[in-house]
Amino acid sequence: MSPSIPERTTPEPDVDPRPTVHDLVVNLTRPPLAQRRFWTVQAMVVGLFIIHLATVYSPIHHVIPVADSTLDLLLFIPIVYGGAAFGLVGSLGASLTGIALTIPMQLLMDHPASEVWQEWAVLTTTVVVAIQVGHHYEVERRQRELLRRAERTKLESELRALRIDAEAQRALARRDALFHDAFANNTSGMYLLDRYGHIVDVNRAFCQMIGRSEDELLGRSPNGFRLDDDVAAAEEHRRRLISGSVSTVHYTTRFLHRDGRVIFGEVSAACLTDEHGEPETFVVSVRDATDERALLAELEHQALYDPLTGLANRTLFEDRLSRARALIARDGGAVAVFLLDLDDFKGVNDTFGHHVGDELLVQFARRMERVTRASDTLCRFGGDEFLYLAQGITGSYEEVATRLLSAVHEPFSVANTTLEQRVSVGVVIVDDDTMENEELLRNVDTALYEAKRRGKGIVVRFTSDMYDQASSRYELLRDLRTALGTDQLRMRYQPLIDLVTDEVVGFEALMRWQHPTRGPVAPDTFIPLAEQTDLIVDLGEFALREATATAASWVVGHGRAPYVSVNLSSNQFRDPNLLALVDEALAASGLDPQRLVLEITERAALADTAQVAAVLAHFEDRGVRLALDDFGTGYSSLSHITRLHPHIIKIDRSFIVAADDDVASRALLDAMISLGRRLQLTVLAEGIETETQLAYLRGLGCQIGQGYLFAPALSRDEVATWLAACASPRWASRETTLATARDEPGHRYAPGAQFSQTR
Ligand code: C2E
Ligand code: MG
Ligand code: MG
User: Fold this and answer.
1) Quick one: residue 295, left, alpha or beta (phi over 0 = left, psi -120 to 50 = alpha)?
2) Ligand 1 pocket: which of 596, 686, 756 to mutate (most atoms within 8 A of CB)
3) Which of 54, 159, 199, 435 has the highest local Cβ count within 10 Å?
4) Mutate which of 490, 508, 510, 704 for ligand 1 pocket (most atoms within 8 A of beta carbon)
C-alpha cells in the first residue's frame, strides 16, 4: 500500500487580469434577458401605435401656428424618443408604460396630423424602429459574444485547473513511488504504525532484523516483539509524538529476535497528521546496533576485565578500591586488600608451557570465585598475581585468608597433569582514608614479598616495619649498582670433591658482597633483587670473567686441573649475548673450555627447552659443560632432561638434609641418583654437612659432593695457596688448610661447622 504524503501543496493558478467568468455571467444574467426583451418589444409596439395616432389626430395643428410639417417634426421627436425611452425602461413594468402612454395617446387622438407629417412620421418611425431593432440585435450579438468568451474563458480556466491537478497527482504518485521504494529497500528496518499503534506496513530489513515475517508483524503492535522492560519507554515516546510536543523522537530499544537473541535497535520515529491535524501514521525507522553494542561492550570489557580469567583488571580494581575508601571515609568500617601470588608459577610455565600455565591461572581464578563473595572484587593484577578486595571486614581478616588458602588445597588437574600449587598472600587492612591506592598496593606487595620470604604458602599482614624493609631492599638494589666494579663484590670458590677418589675436581664460583655499612650480604638476598632488573646480566658477566680468569690460574702438580662451575641466572640464559660473552671470557682468560661448567637451575633450563637446547649445542661444540643446579626442586620432566643432555645434575641440599631421617626423601634421593647414573650423567650432591650424609651418598653411588663438610667457599688466594701446596688435591689431606678457611661473616656457613677430620 502507498502511504499518504503529509503536506500536499496545490500549485497556485495563474492570475488572470481579465474579468472573471463569474463577473461576466453575473452581469449578463441580471435582470433576466428574456424579460428585458419582452418589455422592449412591447414598448416599441406601443410607441409605433402612438406615433401612428399622433400623425393622424394631432391637436397641435390647431393650437400652434406653425407649418404642419414643422409641427409634425417637433412632435415626432419627443414622441418617438419618448416611446423608445419607454421601451428601454420597459423593464420597469407594463403598468407604468401603460399609464405613461395614455396621456399623449389621448392628445394625439384629438388632433390628427397632416399627411406630410404622417409620411415623415412613418419614415422616421421606420428608421427608429430599424435602429432599435439593429441596436437590439447588436446588443444581443455582443451579449452572445461575451457569453461565448465567458464560456471559453471558463472552460479554459477549468481545463488549466484540471491540468494542474493532473500534474500534482503525477508528482504525488512519483513521490509515493519513491517513498515506497526507499521504504521497502531501506537497509534500516522501517515500519508504519496507524494511530492506534498497530503495524500497517513493514519493510524487509525490519522483518530480517527480528526474524519475523511480514504477516506475523502486520496488524500487531511492535511491543509484542520488544523486551518487556522497554515497552513503557517506547509508549512514552509515542505519547510525546501524539502530543505534538516534539516532531521526532530518538531512543534505543530492545527487540526479541525469533531465535531468542536480543536486538538493540536505535529508533527514530515521526508522526504524520491528517487534514485535521490529528495523528494518522507513525513512521518508525530502526537501526540494528546490536553488533556495535557488542563491540562496545567487548571493548569496555577489555578495558576493565582480564581477557584470560575474566576477572576485573587493575583499572577496575582501583576504581572499586577508591569507592570503598570513599565509603569508609563516610560511613566508617574497614576493607581488606589481599594480594595472592602463585608460588613458583614460573616453574609451571617454564616446564609445561604457557598454555598449561594459562589454564592453571583460569582454574585458580574459578576456585577463588568459589571461596569469595560475589559482591566483592576479584582481580587479576598481572602474571600470577591476584587481588581480592573484601568489603565489610570487621577486624578479622584471618578467616578470609584461610578461605583463600583453601582454594589451593586440592591439586589442580591441567592438561593431564596434576599440579600441587601453593599460594602466598599479603594483606592490608584499610580502615581509614589516609592512604592512596598506590600506597595501598605498594604495601600489600610488601606484605606479599614478606610472605614469600618467610617460606611461601602463608598469609602475612602488612605492618609499618615492613615498609622499612621494602625501602631497604630498594636501597640495597641501588647500592648493588654502585658496588659492581668495586671490590665490594668478590667471587668465592667452594670445592667440589670426587666422592670416590677424594680429589677436588672443581670449584663452584659463588658471589659475595661486602656492603660498606651493612657488612656481608648473602647472594640469596641480592641475586633475586638483581634478577628483577637488568643488573643480573652485569653481575653474571662479572662472575664469568672473574671465575674463568681465576680458574685459568689454578695449577696442580699432577692430575687434572679442577674445573670452575659458574652460576647463570635464567635471565642470562635468555640473553642473546651469552654465547659471545662465554667465548670472550674463555678467550680473555685462556681457560680450556673443558674446565668451564655453567650451572643453571633446573627450572631455568626447562624454560624454553628449544632455545636452551640450541644454546647448549653451541656450548657442547666448544666443550663447555652444563650442570643442572638445585635438581629436584623444579617440575622435573625426564623427556626434557634427555633432550637437554646436561653433564652434571646437582641434587638440591634439601634432599640431602631430609634423607637424614625421612624414608621417603631417601627413596627420592636414591631414585634421582640412579636416574642420573642411568642417563650417564655425573651426579653431584649439594650441602653435605655430616659424615652420615656423606656415607649414605657414597653408598648410593653419588660421584661428587659439595658442602661444609668439605669446605665453605674460599677466597681466590686461599684456593691458590691450597692448590699450590698439594700434589694431589685430596680434600682430606688438606684438612688443616680447609679447617682454617672461613666463609665470610654473615654467610650461612657457620665457622664452627667444619668438615669431619676423621678421614
Ligand atoms: P647454589 O648455586 O645452589 O649454591 C650453593 C649454595 O649452597 C651456596 O650458597 C653455598 O654457600 C651453599 N652451601 C654449600 N654447602 C653448604 C652446606 O653444607 N650447607 C649449607 N647450608 N649451605 C651450603 P650461597 O653462596 O649463599 O649462594 C646461594 C645461591 O645464590 C646459589 O645457590 C646460587 O643460586 C646463587 N648465586 C651465588 N653466586 C651466584 C652468581 O655468581 N651468579 C648467580 N646467578 N647466582 C649465584
Ligand atoms: Mg649453583
Ligand atoms: Mg644449588
Assistant:
1) alpha
2) 686
3) 54
4) 510
